[in-house]
Design goal:
The structure holds 2 protein chains of 2 kinds.
Chain A: H1 3-6, H2 54-77, H3 85-111, H4 116-136, E1 146-151, E2 155-160, H5 162-210
Antiparallel strand pairs in A: 1-2
Chain B: H1 2-21, H2 26-51, E1 57-60, E2 71-74, H3 76-102, H4 109-128, H5 132-150, H6 156-187, H7 192-199, H8 204-222, H9 231-234, H10 240-265, H11 272-291, H12 296-317, H13 320-351, H14 362-365, H15 367-381, H16 387-402, H17 405-433, H18 439-450, H19 454-476, H20 478-494, H21 496-503
Antiparallel strand pairs in B: 1-2
Helix pairs in contact in B: 1-2, 1-4, 2-3, 2-4, 3-4, 3-10, 3-13, 3-19, 4-5, 5-6, 5-10, 6-8, 7-21, 8-10, 10-12, 10-13, 11-12, 11-17, 12-13, 12-16, 12-17, 13-15, 13-16, 13-19, 13-20, 15-17, 15-19, 16-17, 16-19
Classes of the chains: A mainly alpha, B mainly alpha.
Chain lengths: ~210, ~500
């Protein structure tokens, strides 16, 4: 396999589309990088579907921090206003879905070091733990403990234990969406790639036999 | 008391999280899963003891006052259902672990255990829910887990079955949500006790419409004819442990929900005729379906549909005796159905298939297995002195007590269904268990004996034996059980104990 094959971007001339872009685990930009010149995403780009789109990559790069910040805002503000762990989790997982669409499954893996199942488990533990903790003190389940503090810049701030519960919900939602993406996107993508590789190897074998 | 009410939901969920984290350590995962379910069994036992005298326990999550917050309620009926379900869940889980140890299943244990615990939490929440929305949440937890479980060890048939199952269940869920919205629109609350109080002043027609809507919602899940078509297509296809728990519990949770909503929320007299009609149709259609089946699991699934009819029949009697009969029937049917499906799983394991046509001489292949099949099958058929006889006798006695030609018609259908059940299970007995065994069945049995499966197989057989013994125990404990059932039925029809426990004194 030459470097040409590893080059993302356009398909190499004379090759069928679908063959370009092997998995690049090195993380370094290939040498004959044509467009775009900047590395917008953290792995060698190979989108999940169709050709590579600069616009999508740039959008993913720029929007990811904003989306995640907004997700945290929703999480924190959700106590008595619209938002909360569920909405926040959905928004946050959209950031990862966007990265996946723009950069394929390696990009998704680079952006989220935890397995979706681990996220689910952690979220469930945090949420149920918070729900059950008041039982130990003899209070009813899901009792909310809150503490209001006066901070110099922010003024009156209310810390409540529901936030922990909501964080658990947040993690569960992110884990769930990511496992859907992993099952219906990334794993199928990997399987397709395997089939393609096998076919290519088979074709090469036949050519070799003919010579 | 609040702790007892919270544990059956919280502990399985914590267990699920822990089991999910322990994917790489199967032994540890099994230990955690079993411990979680054992804790649920213990706590539900305590709940049953606390409510056995007719006490209704209510807990308010987060200490919000009743109509506002999440209410969990345990009355004798829900405590009894919880205790029985927890035992069955634990036994089936141990059966599954045995099967995994034997290496006889392609199911992924690391996925099975967490989802199974979520299913447990869903079942428990459904029994405990004190408001319609949490009933919905409990149902959804249970159903979502079951969507994942039904495709364990996926084959083409299982994926096809799961499509039917999922679409039908989602339809019922959408109707359920619609019903909740309508109830909220009418009364401004979803708390069961509060709805019960406020629906009293609602127009008669609206109450009837809502009662019918909720009957359809839960009727789909309980597989009442004509909404039963999905069940014999989906349950038998799943792997043994799953079909056993689905057949034993999921339909019964729906029957519980029918009983709860029809007795507590809606007027009782105006719907009994409908219930009796549905009961007759369910009994007759189900058992006719069972009589022509070739696959044992499919046969048992049709018999399951048919016997749901008995429970609706008892509810349609609209009397304390009738409801008590339903409750005894529920307990009997959960245990016996789980036992039968586990036995079917063992048969499938021993002879490699479950088709009656290619089955002969199971008596010779495995005498123990034939005993395990015979006892619950006779119980299902309602022969004395099995639990099925006790339950049917209670129902029929209540029916004779109620009187009137619609009840007598339903009673006749019930007696006929019992006889046809005898024919259906004896057909299995004669075809599958008598005669000289087919050579390939003996071969399969020998192969199984020689393999390294023996330890796990023993666990599976033991657990099946435990389930069968539990069926006998239901018959042995018929006296205390029917006393408890009368207490529960009295609470159900009275309603004020439930409402007072939730809303406080003087709510009505």
């Amino acid at each position: 396999m030459t470097d040409d094959d590893a080059a993302p971007g356009r398909p190499a001339p004379g090759r069928a589309e679908g063959e370009w872009g092997r998995a690049d685990r090195s993380g370094a930009p290939p040498e004959n990088w044509e467009a775009p010149r900047e590395r917008w995403l953290s792995t060698g780009v190979r989108p999940a579907f169709g050709p590579r789109s600069v616009l999508l990559e740039v959008a993913a790069r720029l929007l990811t921090p904003a989306i995640l910040t907004f997700a945290v805002f929703l999480l924190v503000s959700g106590h008595d206003r619209p938002g909360g762990g569920f909405a926040g989790g959905l928004v946050a997982s959209m950031a990862y879905v966007l990265r996946y669409i723009a950069g394929g499954r390696h990009e998704l893996a680079a952006g989220m070091p935890l397995r979706p199942n681990t996220l689910l488990a952690a979220g469930l533990l945090v949420a149920c733990g918070t729900a059950a903790a008041p039982l130990l003190a003899g209070h009813p389940v899901l009792k909310v403990y809150s503490y209001t503090a006066h901070l110099p810049v922010f003024g009156k701030v209310k810390f409540a234990s529901y936030l922990l519960f909501e964080s658990g919900v947040f993690l569960i939602v992110v884990g769930l969406v990511l496992s859907v993406v992993a099952a219906l996107g990334a794993r199928m993508e990997a399987e397709e790639e395997e089939v393609r590789d096998r076919r290519r190897r088979g074709a090469a074998g036949r050519e070799g036999g003919a010579q | 008391m609040n702790v007892l009410l919270a544990v059956p939901v919280v502990v399985p969920l914590l267990g699920a999280a822990a089991a999910l984290l322990m994917r790489r350590a199967p032994r540890l995962q099994q230990g955690v899963a079993v411990a979680a379910l054992a804790a649920v069994v213990a706590v539900t036992g305590l709940l049953l003891r606390a409510t056995a005298d007719g006490t209704v326990l209510a807990g308010q999550a987060g200490a919000w006052r009743a109509p506002l917050g999440i209410t969990v309620v345990a009355d004798p009926l829900s405590a009894l259902m919880l205790a029985v379900s927890a035992v069955v869940l634990l036994v089936v889980q141990l059966f599954a672990i045995g099967q995994d140890i034997a290496g006889l299943s392609r199911a992924m244990p690391q996925v099975f255990h967490p989802i199974y615990l979520v299913l447990t939490a869903g079942v428990c929440l459904s029994f405990l829910a004190g408001d319609l929305f949490n009933l919905f949440v409990g149902f959804e937890m249970m159903l979502t887990a079951s969507y994942a479980l039904i495709t364990q060890a996926p084959t083409r048939a299982r994926v096809r079955a799961s499509m039917i199952y999922t679409v039908v269940s989602l339809t019922s869920s959408i109707l359920f949500l619609t019903g909740i919205a309508l109830v909220y629109g009418l009364t401004g609350t979803v708390n069961l006790a509060d709805v019960a109080v406020k629906l009293g002043s609602a127009p008669e027609e609206l109450r009837m419409v809502l009662a019918l809507l909720f009957l359809v919602v839960f009727g789909i899940k309980a597989a009442l004819v004509p909404m039963h078509f999905w069940l014999p297509d989906s349950y038998p296809v799943a792997i043994t442990r799953i079909s056993a728990i689905f057949a034993a519990l999921l339909t019964k949770v729906a029957v519980y929900a029918i009983i709860r909503t029809q007795t507590l929320l809606f007027g009782r007299d105006d719907i009994t005729a409908v219930l009796l009609c549905i009961a007759v149709a369910t009994m007759v259609v189900g058992i006719f379906g069972a009589m022509v089946q070739d696959d044992i699991n499919r046969l048992m699934s049709f018999a399951l549909v048919s016997h749901i009819g008995f429970m609706i029949f008892g509810l349609g009697l609209n009397s304390v005796a009738g409801l008590a009969g339903v409750i005894v029937y529920l307990v009997h049917h959960i245990v016996v159905q789980a036992g039968l499906f586990l036995v079917n799983g063992l048969i499938r394991q021993y002879v490699g298939h479950s088709s009656l046509r290619a089955m002969r001489g199971l008596n010779t292949v495995s005498p123990v297995l034939s005993v395990y099949f015979f006892l619950p099958a006779m119980s299902l058929a309602g022969l004395p002195p099995m639990s099925g006889f006790v339950a049917k006798a209670a129902l029929f006695q209540a029916a004779v007590g109620a009187g009137g030609w619609p009840v007598y018609t339903a009673l006749a259908a019930g007696v006929a269904t019992s006889l046809l059940t005898v024919i259906a299970v004896f057909r299995v007995w004669v075809r599958g268990f008598w005669g000289t065994p087919m050579p390939d069945m003996v071969e399969a049995r020998e192969r199984l004996k020689r393999g390294s499966h023996l330890g796990g197989l023993r666990v599976m057989a033991t657990m099946t034996g435990v389930m069968v013994a539990a069926g006998l125990a239901v018959a042995a404990a018929a006296g205390p059980l029917s006393e408890l059932a009368f207490v529960a039925a009295h609470d159900l029809l009275n309603g004020s104990a439930y409402i007072e426990a939730v809303l406080g004194e003087g709510a009505r």
